[in-house]
Structures are given as structure tokens and as C-alpha cells.
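Lab meeting, item 3. Inverse folding demo.
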């Protein structure tokens, strides 16, 4: 079932989701979020699918929100970040956590912003040697969303979580492995083969065992994920109306350092 921005393929018991905006390094726009949500809640949730592989087309996994495309406006003319997160982006990411089957991310390039959130929302994460991760939200005056504030701290600990959120630095794949963001790092030309081998192994395994383990681990590690996603959406919505965000987004498009004022 091909889509414009997200491609779904099923072979036997294995489902494959390919993020398909390669010209933007698979940056998020509302159509992209809606298609990803439909795939995760629809064909990926079908009982015939026993394991899912998620990767990106082209040179990247996902570069985060598409700032050049902008955001849809609400009634007062400001960017309606709350609705995009509530209605599209967060349901897609939470849906991965709630799928009663293993989801493997094959991170083939940059996984930045909400693209990083999507990758680490998966149950198991493989990365190419050239891949890197980053919560780059701060670089444009925003905060981590997509569940990052729930997913990152248990993986890397308090000190590194704050470092990622406040500094927005790139975390190369080997460092991501050391920090606990990913499970394996493979040479670029071996990544998809290794990921395919893993999902085949999982698809042949005890699906009910996986589902129960996932449910119990979700409950213990992430607590009330919905409440955390709601908090992210409210805080991000306010930040998207700040002068710092306007300056950060403009500086990003103009490829210059931002001049933040705290406004």
C-alpha cells in the first residue's frame, strides 16, 4: 500500500514502514504525520503482521519538522502546533509504543528533532555508522516533543537527557550506542540486511510474549505517556508563538546563527 510520504509494505508476517520524503531527509509535515498515523493504526496493527521494520528513504531517517513548509494556523493566526501534535504526530508515535508486536528502527542517517523521538520510540534501534541523533529543538527556540521527554531520560539518564535537551548537539551513532539510545551500530551497507534478519527472527518468535513484555515495560518505564505527550504539546504550542522561535526558524532557513532574546 504505497503512500505519498509514507510507504507500507508487507511480506508474510513482516511489515515495513518507509518514511518517504527523501528530498527533505524525511522531514515532517501534516500529510506525513497523518499517513504515518494511518499506517500504524491500520495495516501495521493487523494480526497478520508479527514484527515491523521502520526506516527512511534516501540519505536520512528523519530530519524533524519541515520548517520551510511551516505550520498550519489556528483561529488567532498563530502556528497551531498543539493540534498537529495532538491529532497527528503524537498518536503516531504513541501508537508504536502500543502496538502489541516488536517495532525495529533502522536509522540510516540523521534522526533529528521529532525524527529522533520517532526512532527511540521503537522497541529496538539499529543505526548505520554514519547516522546521528539529536534533540535539535533548542536550536530554534523550542523544546523536545514527540515523546522525547519520556523516552530519552530512561535510556540515557538525567545528566545526558538534560545535555541533549539543552544543548541540542549531534550524537553520532557510536556515542548513541554508548549512551544507550540504540542497541546496535552497523556499517552503512549492512544496516538493512541486519535489520531484516532481526525482524525475521522476531516475526518467528512468541508474539504474545513480546506483547506482554512490551505492555509491562511501557507501564513501568513510561508511566502515563498520554499525560506527558499532552504536556509537551501545551508547552510547545506556547513556545511556537514566541519571538525566539520566529528568530530561530528564520535563522535556520537563512542558514545563520540565531539571536535569541528570551522573548
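The presenter then showed the designed sequence:
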Amino acid at each position: 500500500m504505497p503512500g505519498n510520504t509514507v510507504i507500507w509494505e508487507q511480506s508474510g508476517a513482516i511489515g515495513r514502514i518507509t518514511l518517504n520524503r527523501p528530498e527533505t531527509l524525511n522531514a515532517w509535515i501534516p500529510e506525513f504525520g497523518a499517513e504515518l498515523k494511518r499506517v500504524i493504526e491500520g495495516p501495521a496493527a493487523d494480526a497478520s503482521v508479527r514484527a515491523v521494520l521502520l526506516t527512511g528513504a534516501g540519505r536520512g531517517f528523519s530530519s524533524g519538522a519541515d520548517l520551510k513548509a511551516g505550520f498550519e494556523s489556528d483561529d488567532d493566526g498563530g502556528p497551531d502546533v498543539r493540534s498537529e501534535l495532538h491529532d497527528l504526530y503524537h498518536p503516531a508515535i504513541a501508537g508504536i509504543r502500543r502496538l502489541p508486536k516488536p517495532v525495529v528502527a533502522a536509522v540510516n542517517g540523521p534522526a533529528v528533532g521529532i525524527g529522533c523521538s520517532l526512532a527511540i520510540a521503537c522497541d529496538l534501534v539499529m543505526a548505520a555508522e554514519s547516522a546521528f541523533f539529536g534533540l535539535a529543538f533548542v536550536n530554534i527556540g523550542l523544546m523536545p516533543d514527540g515523546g522525547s521527554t519520556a523516552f530519552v531520560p530512561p535510556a540515557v539518564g538525567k545528566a545526558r537527557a538534560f545535555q541533549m535537551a539543552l544543548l541540542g548537539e549531534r550524537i553520532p551513532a557510536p556515542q548513541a550506542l554508548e549512551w544507550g539510545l540504540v542497541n546496535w551500530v552497523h556499517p552503512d551497507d549492512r544496516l538493512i540486511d541486519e535489520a531484516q534478519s532481526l525482524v525475521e527472527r522476531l516475526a518467528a518468535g512468541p508474539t504474545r510474549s513480546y506483547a506482554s513484555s512490551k505492555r509491562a515495560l511501557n507501564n513501568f518505564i513510561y508511566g502515563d505517556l498520554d499525560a506527558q505527550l499532552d504536556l509537551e504539546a501545551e508547552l510547545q504550542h506556547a513556545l511556537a508563538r514566541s519571538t525566539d522561535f520566529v528568530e530561530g526558524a528564520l535563522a535556520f532557513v537563512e542558514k545563520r546563527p540565531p539571536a535569541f532574546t528570551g522573548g
